[in-house]
Design goal:
Length: 454
Amino acid sequence: MTELTGLSTTGRVATPNDSDWDAARAAWNLAADQQPRAVAFVEGADDVAAVVRFAAEEGLQVAGQGTGHGAVALGPLDDAILIKTERMRAVDVDADARTARVEAGALAQELGEAAQEHGLCSLPGSSPDVGVVGYTLGGGLNWLGRRYGFACNRVNAIDLVTAGGEARRVDAETDADLFWALRGGGGGYAIVTALHLDLVPIAELYAGALLLPAELGADAVRAYRDWATDVPDEVTSIVRFLHLPPIPEVPEPLRDRPLLTIGAACIGSQAEGEETIAPLRELGEPIMDTFGQIPAAGLNRVHMDPEQPVPGLGHHELIRELSDDAIDAFVGAAGPESGSPLLLAELRQLGGALGRPAEGAGALSHLDAAFVMLGVGLPMTPEMGEAIDRHLDDLHETMAPWGAEGGYFNFAERPGEVETILPPETCARLGEVKRRWDPEGMIQANHAVSPALA
Ligand SMILES: Cc1cc2nc3c(=O)[nH]c(=O)nc-3n(C[C@H](O)[C@H](O)[C@H](O)COP(=O)(O)OP(=O)(O)OC[C@H]3O[C@@H](n4cnc5c(N)ncnc54)[C@H](O)[C@@H]3O)c2cc1C
């Protein structure tokens, strides 16, 4: 029985004694079986501070969670109160300043639509219902990334509650070390209550995807690679093998057949976009072509990511160089002949501003790699989970000869040490921030940093 006597919040606090406990503790990623001591559905910074202070007095830990997209990486919560921020959804756009204040539970699509009303755009990734805060704290690899860099480096201030239970606003001048750590180092240093973001002046752009038969194979991936090497920073793209399940929600022509998809966002006019994409249209007759001039908020849906909770297991690798050999290896392990049990295996294009040191950067400045590879499977049964994990390991091993050092925080979906993701000097600096702001290790997070790393 969880005793929570003395914890007073505006929002609800759920415990294992509640009849809806399983729903209360569930994460967006249904593969995560979270078992915290309690779940606090906070409604503001005062609630967060009350939960953090209560946890400290009781010798418990806390963990922040917006949606649970990253919940598999979070690890055990046996002695933690899970702070769910889904009731804190306000998004306030200042059109003149081109900024937004985004509360901790707001979703990417909600931010995108609020910015769109003012002819502005956030830096969205592929998922409409990912949490803006978790996505941004882990970097924020996005459709405009080669032009504007990682989303974390367009944060100008952060409202948070410290491990000591104190509400503060941090920025480049005030508590600059904490501000630095949270921008790309994940959420292990404080509980964020809101982000202040710079928006970009894009109202619409040319974006979409070609869905092609996967049988086009290595030749098409090589042609894509050559095309991607030449495009300007205004273009960011993703190529992937995709095998959608045989369920009615999937349109019939795409159901249960191996696909090769090439998605891209091209900043500029329709005519410029059409010209940029033209060489890709020559690869073969598409099963579907979704390219067009779209409102910027539509970027969230270009990749057609699921918009409801699903179970997912993933693994990733940074790819130094996508040589012909690397493409053959990738197609062999993930293409139509591979027998892969994965939903998808993709290569997301880096380079441009994603590969250059960002001005005033946080813990993630840029990535020194050409692509990031991500594999994801849907484990509907434990047996499928085992087969998926084995295949993810094989894919990782197959691509290792072309792998770059380190990883990308947000795609590190397995629980694991931050030292395998971020460079040693970044980890040491993060360790110092942890030692200063959370010496007792109160705040749990995916890929948490220990003060001992300092
Ligand atoms: C379908 C899908 C598509 C994705 N696409 C992209 C993409 O295009 N680009 C990209 O970069 N990533 C992408 N990701 C990865 C995603 O950004 C990470 O999983 C991210 O952590 C999710 O944030 P969340 O808040 O939704 O998830 P959560 O699981 O709620 O949060 C993840 C972590 O963020 C921290 N956190 C969240 N809220 C708070 C808070 N209030 N205070 C302190 N810490 C907090 C915690 O450490 C938490 O464990 C994708 C993931 C999925 C499942």
